[in-house]
Amino acid sequence: MVGFRVPGSGRLAALAVSGALALVVAGCGAAPSGGGGGKAPLVIGFASPLTGAEATYGVSDLHAIQMAAAQVNAAGGAAGHRIKLITCDTKADPATGVSCAHLFVSQNVNAVIGFFNSTISIPGSAILHAAGIPMVTGASTNPKLTEQGFKNVFRVCGTDNFQGLVEAEYAYNVLHARTAVAINDEETYGEGVSQYFAQNFKRLGGRILSTQGVSATATDFSSVLTQIKGLHPAVIQFGGFNPAAGLLVKQARGLGITAPFISDDGTIGPLFFQTGGSATVGSYLSSEPAPQDLPTSRAFVSAYVHRYGNQPTEFAGYNYDALNVIAQAVRADGGSVGPAAIIRGLSGIHSYHGITGVINFDSVGNNVTPQYLIYQVQPGGGNKVVWNPNAKAATG
Amino acid sequence: MSLAELPQQIVNGLVVGSLYGLIALGYTMVYGIVRLINFAQGALYEVGAYLGVVIFSVLADAGLRNPVLGLVVAIVVASALTGALALVVERVAYRPLRHAPPLAPLVTSLATFFLLMSIVQVVTGAQPLNYPQVLAVTPWTLGPITLAPTAALIAVVAIVLMVAMHLFVQRTRTGKAMRAIAVNRDAAALMGINTTRVVALTFALGGAMAAAGGVLFGVNYGTVTYNMGEFGGLVAFTAAVLGGIGNVPGALVGGLTVGVLSSFATMVLPNQWQEAVVFGILIVVLAFRPQGILGERVAERA
After folding, report:
1. Labelling A243: which of A11, A358, B5, B246 has CA 20 to 30 A away?
2. Closest Cα of chain A to B72: distance in Å?
3. CATH of the domain spanning A9-158+293-359
C-alpha cells in the first residue's frame, strides 16, 4: 500500500468505474528508433492511477518511466531492443486495475511495471503469474505481494515492515525511549507497520505498554487517548493514514500528552499538518526517501525537472529504477526479450546501483537493501530529514 | 481500566455528548410538532460543517484575523444558511406530503439526507476539508481533568444554544404556538395560529442548530468529511430517542448520556467495541423505558 490514501476515494472510484479503459499506446515517439535494427521491441506495460485523487503520483511515475525509456532508447536500446511502453490507467480502482493486467496479457507485453496500489498489485500479479509475464513494482509496499510464491514478481522499493523496524530503532536508539504505545487504524497497512514496530521495539529491549486499534473513520479519540495518558508512554507510534493521524496527535496534545508521536509514510504529506495543525510539529515520520533527499537521485531529479518542469513525487525514482532493472535483465540474459528470459535475468540482479540505492533481489523478489529515512514535521508543515539509518556506520 | 481516568472520561463524554444533543434538537423538535423523523437532520449538520469551511476561508481572504469574531460569524452565517436550506427541505420534501401516510414523508426525509450528502461529496470531490486553527491548542488543566479550549467551546456553546431553545419553546409566543400544534394541529389552526409557518420555522431552527453543531465539530476536530452526517446523524437520532423524542431538554440529556456511555465503553472493552456497547445499552434502556429518559408516552393520535 502506498502512502497517500484519500478517505472515501475507494467509494468514489467504485462509482467512477465506467468501464472506459484509458489506453494510451505511448511508443516513446520522441526517442529515435535506437540502434536496434530489426530486433523486436521490448514492450513494457505500465499501469498506475493516471486520473483521480492519486493521479499526482501515477503521472509522476509515468514521467519517470518515459524518461528512463527515452534514455535507454537513445543509448541504443536494451541489448539492441528498443523499449515500447503501453500505458493503462487503473484509476486506483482494483476492478479497473485488474482489467489493465488482462489487457497486458492480451497485448503480449514482455514485462509489466505496476500497479502503484498494493490492492491492485496483488490481484494483478496473479494474472501476470498465470501468463508467465514478469512484473516489477516501484510503489507497492505491502509485504503480501511477494508472499504469494510467484517467481515473476519483483519489488525495487521496500516493504512496510522496514518502516516498523526503522521507527523502532529511532525510538529506542535515538530518542532513548524505553516504553511505547502502538496504535493502528485496523487496516492492513497500518496494522502491519505497527506490528513490526512493536516487535522490533521489544527486540531492542523496550516495553510496549498497550496496543490499540482505532477506527480509520473515527474522529473522536479522546477516550482511548485518556487511557494512554495514564500509561505515561515515552513515545506514541501510529500505523495508518490521515485524517486519523492528524486528529490523534491534535487530540493527544489537547489532553496534555506530550510524548513524541511517530508514524509512517501513510501519514507523511500536507494533509497531516492541515488536519492536526501546529500539534503535528515535531512529529517523526518514517518514509522511503523523497528523490530530492537522496544524493544518488540528484541527476535524476534535475533531468526530470528539466524535462517536465515540476518535481518528481515520492515513488518516481523507484519506477525509474524499475524500468532500468528490466533493461538490465534483458542485457544480462543474452539479450532475449522473452518473458521467461527476463524473469531469469531479474532473479540474477545483484548489487545493481540504481538511483534509489543498491538493489538486491532475494528469493521472493524483494529488494533486501531499501533505504528509509525519519522525517520531522517543521513549523509551517514541511518535513525535514532528521535521521538516516543507512548513514549510521558513517556517523558512528 | 483505571478509576483515576474516570473524571477525564466523563468530561470527554460530556463534550461529544453536548454536540450530539445539539443535533438531536432538530429531530426532537420536528418530531414533537409534526410526528416526523426528519432524517435530513444528519445531512444538514454536515452541510453546516462544510459551510463553516467556506465562511472561514472567505473571512481569511477578507483579512479578518480575530478568531473569536470569526467563530461567531461562522456559526451565525452557517446556521442562517442551513436554516434556509431546511426551509427548502420542508417546502419540497415535507409540506406536499403532510396529508400523506406518515411513511411517505419519512422516506422523502431519508431521500433528502442522501441527496444532500451526495451533493457535498460531488462538490468537494470526497476530499476531507480542513478548518483553520481558531483557538490555541494548549490545554487547560484542572486537577485530574485536561481540556482543550476548542472542546470546552463545544460544550459551552452547545449547552447555551440548547437552553436558549428550551426557553424559546417555553416562554415565547411562537414557542407556545409550537406547543399548541404539537397537542392538536387542527385546533391550533382554528385558534388562528399559522401552522404552516410555525412548522416551517421548526424545521429551520432544527437545521440551524445542526449547522452550529457542524461548525463546532469542525473547529474542535479540524477536519470534516463528506460522510460525517451518517454517523453524526445516527447517533444524534439515538440521543433524541433515548432522551425522550419530542422533549427539548431530553435531547440534551440523551446526548450527554450517549456521549458518556461511549466514553465509558472504551474503559471496559477494547476501543473497537465502543459503538456496540453504546447501542447495546440503548436496547436495554429502551426495553424498560421505551418513552426515553425524560419523554412521556405519547398517545397514538386517532
Report:
1. B5
2. 21
3. 3.40.50.2300
Tell me if A284 sits within 8 A of A375, measured CB to CB: yes
- Chain A: nearest CA to B140, how far in angstroms? 8
* Partner-chain contact A255 B267, CB within 8 Å: no
Q: Give, for A111, the enclosing helix (H) or strand (E).
A: strand A111-113
Residues of chain B with pLDDT under 50: 297-302
Common-topology check for domains A9-158+293-359 and A161-287+372-395: yes
Cβ-Cβ contacts under 8 Å, B263 against chain A: 222-223
Determine how β-strand A23-26 pairs with β-strand A357-359: unpaired
Q: Of the candidates B12, B223, B270, which has its C-beta nearest A243's C-beta? A: B223
The residue of chain A with its CA nearest to that of B262 is A223
B12: chain A residues, CB-CB within 8 Å:
220, 222-223, 226
At A8 the pLDDT is 36
Give the pLDDT of residue A32: 41
Chain B residues inside the 8 Å CB shell of A226? 5, 8-9, 12
pLDDT tens per residue, range A357-382: 999 999 999 999 899 999 999 999 99
Sign, CA dihedral B228-B231-B233-B235, equals negative
pLDDT at B300: 37
For position A17, what pLDDT does the model report?
37
Residue of B nearest to A215 (CA): B272
Pairing of strands A235-239, A284-287: unpaired
Residue matched to cell numbers 429502551: B286
Residues in chain A where the model's pLDDT stays below 70 = 1-37, 391-396
Name the 3-class secondary structure at A262.
strand
State how far residue A112 is from chain B, nearest Cα, in angstroms: 31
What whole-number distance in Å separates Cα of residue A170 and Cα of residue A173? 5
Fold of A161-287+372-395: Rossmann fold (3.40.50)
Say if CB A97 and CB A115 are below 8 A apart. Answer: yes
Taking the C-alpha atoms of residue B52 and residue B273, their distance in angstroms, rounded to an integer, is 32
Beta bridge partners of B260: none
Which residue of chain B comes nearest to A5, CA vs CA? B127
Asked whether the bond before A260 is cis by omega within 30 degrees of 0, the reply is no
In SS3 terms, B184-230 reads as CHHHHHHCCCCHHHHHHHHHHHHHHHHHHHHHHHHHHHCEECCCHHH
